[in-house]
# Entry
Amino acid sequence: MKAVIYCRVSTAEQVENYSLANQEKACREYCQRNGLGVARVFREEGASAKTARRPQLQRMLDYCKKHRGKVDRIVVWKLDRFARETSDHFNLRAQLFEHGVTLRSATEPLKDDPVGRLIETILAGTAQFDNDIRSQRTRQGMISAFQDGRWQFAPPTGYRRGLDGRGKPNIVPDPKHGPLVRAAFEAYATGVYTKAQVLRKANRKGLRTARGTRVTPQTFNRMLRNPMYMGLMQVRGWGEPVLGAFEPLISRNLFERGQAVRSGRKPTVQPYLRNHPDFPLRQFVECAACEKPMTGSWSKGRNAAYGYYHCYGKKCGVKPRVRKEVLERKFVELLESLCPKLEYLKLFRRVALDVWQQASKDRTRRMDVLAGDVEKLRQKKEKLDDAFIYREAIDQDTYTQERDKIIKALMEAQSEIAQAQHLDLDVEALLDFAQHLMVRAPHVWQEASLENKQRFQGAFFPNGLTWGKEEFGTTVSSPIYSVLQASAVPNSDVASPTGFEPVSPP
# Structure
């Protein structure tokens, strides 16, 4: 009689500890004692018995099928090496029976009689019971760690395994990829760049997944929606979100600004996806008659090609058509008419700096208060955990209710701190740049690349422009112009949005 030996271990550690060799040795000794010749040995390394979809197990079944009549026994060290699910065990047993093969254990008394089948059923059920108990304990341990703020699953891109501030196993920001993830969130939240542009730049700078591959658009889209990056953990079926005990890569404010851009709730100044390098105002200027965006194209004349902006609305009765150089010259003239006086800008700069410096002092004092509140809340949570877990002084409902209150307060305080830190800017440099940009707006627009021209247009005229009767229609400019213009341009066709009416200089 011939036998096939099947050995299995579920972890790499068991492979290294020669568990497979010990199993095979015991199975060969069993075969020798029972007069069985060993036809083949199948070794399953690092495979769980929770499923029957194991490579070596399937190869063993195919071998028995192909050698029907030449294999009489399958020998395993213990039944739990064969399967840990009762249904899988008996399904596999039935397949072997069809091939004329019976199952034997080197360490357990299996026989083809009523007593032997009862023992086999009990042992198969015991294997599943043991597996279920282990799974339950593992799940409970993971839920407990989750409620303690520790992430038990694969780290998101930008994080790695490590120890948190309490010295417990958790995730920590990856020193290489973490800053790249943060920079990607910051760039996307501005509304200036498309997701594709932000991702391209991040990949170019070296952002990689845990497998070392470039981040795909699908993965990046999931990253932008993942609250883990602001420190909030959530697992389906595990209750309410929990504040992680690890360092967030971004603030809650930054995350929410990114969501506003993603959902379209925040205006953006992104370039159009279908660009034409010769027509920067294409899709930006609308036809005043039908309110459809105007396009741009070249028309061939007898001796040259001529550029035109024109309306292509099917129901437009006017369909304006204007030469490229005319419309763009008019746009430059509009920018020139909006340029504020230099003395207004200097006054605005002084006022803005005074306000900012006072706000910075107030913010610093507030951050000191919040830092103290965070430390008190952490100590309060530790005492609460001690009262519930170790001293059993309070019940589950009281513990959960108080813990949720503390976590909510922690999240609010940490979010406010992160938002305040985000406002730590070089305001003087920003004001200098803004002044330079506004004074030289016509020249900057003419010299910019196509993408930057389109961003420029979106920033200066958030609602776009309309064209009709050979001129730009009444539109809304950026609020900063309305604040600075005063009455220097009394005949301007640019209207001020409500709340930003022009003011006279002091």
About this structure: The chain is about 50% helix and 15% strand. The longest strand covers residues 37-44. Residues 2-144 form a domain with the Rossmann fold fold (CATH 3.40.50.1390). Confidence is low (pLDDT under 50) at residues 486-506.
